[in-house]
Amino acid sequence: MNYDDFARLGLSIDMTRGKPAPEQLDLSRGLIDEAGTVGHLSRDGIDCRNYGHLLGLPEARELGAELLGLSPSQVAAAGNSSLELMHDALSFAMLFGLPGGEPWRKSAKEVAFLCPVPGYDRHFAICEALGIRMIAVPLGDDGPDMDFVEAQVAADPSIKGIWCTPLYSNPTGTIYSEDVVRRLASMPTAAPDFRLFWDDAYRFHHLTERRHASPDIVGATLKSGYPDRALVFASLSKVTLAGGGVAFLASSPRNIDWWQRHVSVRTIGPDKLNQLRHVRFLRDRAGLERLMERHRALLRPKFDAVAATFEAMLADARGVSWSTPQGGYFVSLYTPDGLAKRTVALAAEAGIVLTPAGAAFPYRIDSRDTHLRIAPSFPSLADIELAAKGIALSLRRAIDERK
Amino acid sequence: MNYDDFARLGLSIDMTRGKPAPEQLDLSRGLIDEAGTVGHLSRDGIDCRNYGHLLGLPEARELGAELLGLSPSQVAAAGNSSLELMHDALSFAMLFGLPGGEPWRKSAKEVAFLCPVPGYDRHFAICEALGIRMIAVPLGDDGPDMDFVEAQVAADPSIKGIWCTPLYSNPTGTIYSEDVVRRLASMPTAAPDFRLFWDDAYRFHHLTERRHASPDIVGATLKSGYPDRALVFASLSKVTLAGGGVAFLASSPRNIDWWQRHVSVRTIGPDKLNQLRHVRFLRDRAGLERLMERHRALLRPKFDAVAATFEAMLADARGVSWSTPQGGYFVSLYTPDGLAKRTVALAAEAGIVLTPAGAAFPYRIDSRDTHLRIAPSFPSLADIELAAKGIALSLRRAIDERK
C-alpha cells in the first residue's frame, strides 16, 4: 500500500497524548466497584470525610514512601495530579522563593531552567507561562549532556533548576545512568537554590521483563551534601485511573516543611477518601507491581507493533531512526532534517493525528525539525498497527517529496 | 456553677474550626456506600477514568450552574476545595494579571485588598502570603460600609479587590442587602481590573426556615456595565463531605477563558469520578436542598443552645453582644474592649479551645480586642451546651478580673 491508498482509507486515529487505554483502566475496576466497601475510617481512625491532614492521609504517605523508597515524613500525598505539584512548586518558588533563596520574581536577571530535549511539553509550558527562560540541553542515551549541564550551572546563578524524567523519559525512553545521576546530585551550582525537578512519572512503567530502578535521587543529593536539591514528583494516574489517582511530592524535610507552609495557605487538605480507596486497592508496592505487570501485558504489543512496522518500512530510509523504549508511554521517531512538520501534516491528511512537531522542545522549536512523538497507548492494537503504517508511509512520502 | 468549678470539670472541647459533625457527614453516606454503583461513564459517555475535561465534567458544570443560577459555560467544576480556587485566582492575578490588567507583581505600588471585618481568616492568609496589603472595612448589619468602600476604590488604583461572603458571612452571619450588592456591582473603581472575590460558601446553609437567597452578583455586574467584576466561589464540602466534595468557580465568559488558560498549564483536569458521584448523589438543586434541610435539623439545636446560654448568662453583662445567625457556621461574640484575648485564654484553661482572638482580622489584629469566633458545628450538642456555658463563664471572669 502506498501513502495515497492509505489516505483513502479515511481513518481517524488520535495518537497525540499519553493516555491509558480503556482496557488498562479496567484493571483498576475494583477501585470503583468496591468503593462502597471502603468506608470512611482510616487505619488510624481518621474520619476521611472531614477536613484536615494537609500532607495527606498517613497511610497514603506511607504507601508513597514505600513506592519511592523514602520515609513517610519526606512524602506528601496530594490530589489527582503531579503536574499540579510541579506547577505549584514553581509558582511558590517564583512568588515566595525556595528555602535559602529569594523569591524568583525579585531576581535581577530572568531566572532560567535547563530543559533536556526532547522533553515533556507540559514541563516546558509551565516555564513558559511563568516567564522562566528555557535552555535546551542535549539528551543522550544515558541522560542529559552533563558536561554542558555542569558548565552552565556552575557559571550562571540565574539557572535555578533542570527538568529530569530519570526513567523512561517522555518522549525518548531514556534511562539516566548512575554516573549522570551522581553528577546531577553532586555538581556545584552558582545558584544556592538550584533544584532538580525530578519527574518520576514512569517509575513503575516497565515495558520489558527488566524492571529498571529509578535512582534514589534524594539519597544521592543527601550524600553529596546538597540535601535539598531534589523535588521528586510521582503519580498514580497511569497506575490506576488517569486524573483520578493520587499524586506524591517527595523531598528533604526542609523542602517538605517549605511545601507545607505554602500549601497550608492554599487548602485545608486533599481528598482523603480517594487516598483511602487507593491504599486499600493497591495495598503495597507488591500490589502495585502486580498491577503494572498487567499494564505491561496490554501495552507491550502496541509498542512492539510500532517497532515492527517501523523496522519493516523504515529500516532502509536514510536519516530515519526511532527509539525502542524499555518503559514509559512514548516512542520518538526521528526524520531527516526538516521533515518532521511535513510528516505530521501528511499523517493528519491520512487521518492520523500526531502531537505537533516541535512540541517536545522549549517554545515548540525543534530547530532541525526532525522529532516526532508517538503515543501508542490509547488506540487499540489494530489501530496502532494501522497508524504505525500510516506514519511510516507519511514519512516516506515526505522524503520522496524532497527528492 | 462559677468559672473555677467549671474549669475543674477538666473538659476538652475544640471549637476552633467550622467543621461538620460526623452526623452531618453521615447524611451523605450514600455517596460512599453507593460509590460502586456509579460506574465510570458520564451521561454523555465520557470515560471519567481518563484524562481531560479541564473545566470539569459537563454534567457537574450543569449542576454547579443550576445551583448558582448561571449558565454552565460560566461555571468551572474543579477539585475538592474552593479555597484552592481563590488562592489560585489570586496567584494567577499576581503572576500573570487579570483580563485587562498587568500582572500585579509588576505594579509600581503594592496592590491592596479591602477586607470586611470580622472576616474569614483563610482569605486574609492568602493576601498576607502574597504580599497583598489588607485594608480593614467595617462590616455592618447589611454588609461592608459602602461609603467607605466606594471612596477607597474610587481613589486608589492599587486596590484590586474586596473579599465578600455575601450570605451568612463567616464569622458574623451577615446577609448583604440588595442595596449593598447593587453598590458593589456598580461602583466606579480606579483599578480597571478590580474584582469582587465572592465567596458564596454558605449559599445553601440556612439555619432558619427562611431560605435567604444569595444575590445574583454576576447578573448585577453585567447589568451595571462591569461584566468581569465578580469571581464567584462555591463548594460542596459543607454539603456532602468536607474536603471530599466538588468546588466551583463561576464568572463571566471572559474570566472563565482567563481561568482556563492558566489552569491548562497546571493540570490535565479534575477528578471526574468524584464529580460523577456527586451529580448522581445530589441530582439537582432540589436534591441538594433536601439534604441541607437535614443539615439544618442537626445544626440548629447547637446554635440555639449557644444563643440560649448566652442569653441566660450574658444578657446583663454590659458591653457584651453576640450574633444570632440565620445561616452559616459561626457565632460572633463581642466582649467589652480589651477582653477577647483574655476570654480565650480563660476558656482554654477551662478546656475549651477557641479560635485565637484576632483571627478574624487582617494580620490577626483586632485593635479593640473584642471579637470571638465560635464554631458550634462539630462538637456534640451536649458539648456545645457545656462549651457555651464555659465561654460565658470565662467572659464573666475576664470582666470581673478588671473590676
From TrEMBL, chains A, B:
InterPro entries (UniProt xref): AspAT_Ic (IPR024551), PyrdxlP-dep_Trfase (IPR015424), PyrdxlP-dep_Trfase_major (IPR015421), PyrdxlP-dep_Trfase_small (IPR015422)
Gene Ontology molecular function, alphabetical: L-aspartate:2-oxoglutarate aminotransferase activity
Annotated TM spans: none
SUPFAM superfamilies listed in its UniProt record: PLP-dependent transferases (SSF53383)
Superkingdom classification of source: Bacteria
Keywords attached to this entry: Aminotransferase, Transferase
Ranges in a coiled coil: none
PANTHER family found in the cross-reference section: AMINOTRANSFERASE, PUTATIVE-RELATED, ASPARTATE AMINOTRANSFERASE
Name the record gives this protein: Aminotransferase
Species assigned in the record: Trinickia symbiotica
